[in-house]
Amino acid sequence: MRRIGDSPPVRALLIALALVLTALFLVVPLVSIFYQAFASGLGEIWVNLSDEYTWSAITLTLLVTVITVPVNLAFGVFLAWLVTRFSFPGRRILQTLIDIPFAVSPVVAGLLYLLLYGRGGWLGSWLANYDLQLMFAWPGMVLVTVFVTCPFVARELIPLMQAQGSAEEEAAVTLGARGWTLFRRVTLPNIRWALLYGVILTNARAVGEFGGVSVVSGSIRGETNTLPLHVEQLYQDYNTVGAFTSASLLAGLAIVTLVIKAWLEWHTARRSH
Amino acid sequence: MARFTPHWLNVLRGGALVATLGLTLSAPLAQAADRELLNTSYDIARELFAEINPQFVTYWKDKTGEDVEIKQSHAGSSKQARAIMQGLRADVVTFNQVTDVDVLAEKAHLIPADWQQRLPNHSSPYYSTMAFLVRKGNPKHIESWQDLAKQDVKLVFPNPKTSGNARYTYLAAWAAANDFDNGDETKIRDYMKRMLGNVAVFDTGGRGATTTFVERGIGDVLITFESEVNNIRNQYGKDDYEVVVPKTDILAEFPVTWIDEYVKRNGTEDLAKGYLNYLYSDEAQRTLANFYYRVNNDKIAAEFADRFPETKLLRVEDVFGSWQDAMATHFSSGGELDQLLRR
Predict the structure, then answer these.
(1) Which of A253, B79, B210, B305 has the fewest CB atoms found within 10 Å of its own CB?
(2) pLDDT at B232
């Protein structure tokens, strides 16, 4: 039996089609972001980059990411370890629950947090008694970002840890390793590449998150605007160059992420041979 | 396991370093001003307040000796109202929709119901009206709301269901027809049907409509606030477009108020009132007129008389009873707009 791609002309056609589609849907938009940013010259870009609000958007994005990534790193490792190394009632349910942030639209996640922690929400009114405000301030944005990005690390680790099984760890235990030593010297080295991969995905998503943080941000310039929100606002203001300058920062970050990801994949593939 | 190297720990330590760096970077965000005021505003007012705020800071420093900082938040004013109801502690709002301030009084009880009486001109320091942006030379000869219902005219404005800007367009067309046809509802509905039938694209918001008209080149007329139309013209080329202000039009108020509950909590009541009253001063009114907003201050209005064509402005309250009535009759589900669009 012949397969569809067996005859050379058909194969060439299919490859060409794939390449053209990739170019149209991925490369052209990406290039146009940079083109739009640079269209009015470097001077304009510098004006927009040195803008105090752009700068504060960058720092806020960094702050949110820098808190989100370690939190979800710890949470993901803990969860994956729990799910793959222990058998307990509700384990399967827990494994399904991990995916909720992926299944729920980020906007809905933002609204949920708003209903819970906002004015009139039951946790919100309790916090208000202590004059603590989470929503419409950076802690709320961190909370939502943590929620939205929490499955990445666990999702990367669970299949790997399931495949590896617990044989090495059991051997270590018989040799007297306990707790932290066991984790640090046996579990961690086995999962580190997958872990790094999860961290990179978490990082990329935390930097780019829009829907959820948009709901809880309050859009205060210079205070609760992350880079993606900043891009939208500049665009709304008819500041096209500014919007695309900030957008190309995000796009640049995405490209760096992809390069690291490719390098990691190459590294993992090489190691497994 | 030999694979494990201390290098891995170094990576973690590096991460912690970056974390510290991030926190240090964000520290200078806190400014050294004595007090802060948060002005929650609509989408397209960023440049306006970027100019007014520094002037106010100087004015306040001269008057009281106090250093203050004005923070700005911009988004669609319905979204802003919702955020304030959910706990965004805005000291003052400067909106482009009366209904969005009303909500703060009726649903959230954050301000008294008579908020419009607290400042001059129904608490609206500036106002605008709807204008037509037409292509160079006005090839379709669009001069009035009636012209928009002509057969070969294609219109661009956002969907009145989702955009406050477009609600004004809809109400202005209705009010103008009401004026023209002396209240004959059959004739008004007939006109509205033809007018709405001419809409080429219903975008969700004003920005999208602008893109459709200017960048995609669709339609003969873009209808939006007079202030916006002029900004678009400045942005996309003065010579490619012309602005037409019809002889009969709607009064679009830009309501402002302080949020009683939050200014008490933030200790900014005097500052908030000072800020809003400042918007009525000669200096601020001049800035507003510079941004193509109409002002009530006679002296400044005279200075900019050539900028604002004379037009008969109808108030929503006078034509439709009240905003609540207008919203219920025209924009509710199954209301007048839905019936007109069904055809």
Answers:
(1) B305
(2) 85
Measured distance CA(B173)–CA(B314) in Å, rounded: 11
Chain B CB within 8 Å of residue A208 CB: no
Reduced to 3 states (helix: H, G, I; strand: E, B; else coil), residue A104 is: coil
Cβ neighbours around B318 below 10 Å, total: 10
Confirm or reject contact between A62 and chain B (CB < 8 A): yes
> Cβ–Cβ contacts within 10 Å for residue B216, how many?
10
- List of residues 6+ apart from A126 with CB closer than 8 A: none
SS3 label, residue A163:
helix
Written as six digits, the tokens of A99 are: 């995916």
Q: What is the predicted pLDDT for the residue at B18? A: 54
Structural domains of chain B ordered from first start: 33-127+253-307 (3.40.190.10), 130-250+311-342 (3.40.190.10)
Residue of B11, B40, B72, B86 to mutate when probing chain A, most A C-beta within 10 A = B86
Q: Which of B99, B193, B160 is nearest to B330 (CA)?
A: B160
Q: What is the pLDDT of residues B141-184, one digit of tens each?
A: 999 999 999 999 999 999 888 788 899 999 999 999 999 988 89
pLDDT tens digits, one per residue of B74-112: 888 888 999 999 989 999 999 988 999 999 999 999 999
DSSP assignment letter at B315: P
A226 vs B: CB within 8 A? no
C-alpha to C-alpha distance for A140 and A133, rounded to whole angstroms: 8
Q: Which residue has the tokens 């970050």?
A: A253
Strands B248-250 and B221-225: unpaired
Q: Look at the alpha carbons of B178, B253, B201, B216 in this order and tell me if their dihedral is positive or negative.
A: positive
A51-272: CATH architecture: Orthogonal Bundle (1.10)
- The burial of A60, by beta-carbon neighbours within 10 Å (0-12 exposed, 13-18 middle, 19 or more buried), is given as buried
ipTM for the complex shown = 0.78
